Amino acid sequence: xxxxxxxxxxxxxxxxxxxxxxxxxxxxxxxxxxxxxxxxxxxxxxxxxxxxxxxxxxxxxxxxxxxxxxxxxxxxxxxxxxxxxxxxxxxxxxxxxxxxxxxxxxxxxxxxxxxxxxxxxxxxxxxxxxxxxxxxxxxxxxxxxxxxxxxxxxxxxxxxxxxxxxxxxxxxxxxxxxxxxxxxxxxxxxxxxxxxxxxxxxxxxxxxxxxxxxxxxxxxxxxxxxxxxxxxxxxxxxxxxxxxxxxxxxxxxxxxxxxxxxxxxxxxxxx
Length: 271
Prior knowledge:
The protein has twelve helices and nine strands. The chain is an alpha+beta fold.
């Protein structure tokens, strides 16, 4: 007798004896307890207790034939559908009970994790959960992996703003292109993803190599604000400085000019 169906029944809460007896009953029925003990491998001393539990579960039924008690299985489609409904109701009720018990979380933390697939899976999850706005800075090579979920977000009315270093095609989204030199890109040291959704959570991803990546996620309002501030202002800096021309050097304090040096070197023409 194949052990696979029995092992799956154990995974959903059957005892080993119950699983073996039910599978045996499906293969040959109706049957007496004595016959099922032989067929299933359940000890004769335990078979009637086991069958009683199957009847109580709604997985088996008793049949009287003279002085003999026989057993038959409830059809698996009927039994499993009922079991599924009961589990859904139980999970829904438990969810309500546990949510009612839980005190509000006032916890700000940073979750660090590694692995390219883990980073992209977290980014996809966040984008799928976004309800209002998505701000995303990324290198163009990362865009293809997120295109599908970003298109879905645009389709459900989420405002999507993408900052990147060359044109990408995402109808319905706003794409802001900052032309950055190869030297500046090299200085970014693999920083390939900045993602903020709904002003509530942020993901910062860094690629160490083509296959290695690490990231940090947080819902800290302070860190979310800093990230969004960077995304929404820093990439406009070269354009603003270009518009100001030489006047920019007069406005920026000497001790701060080093901070602005890259932007000053990469001025673009003011429109």
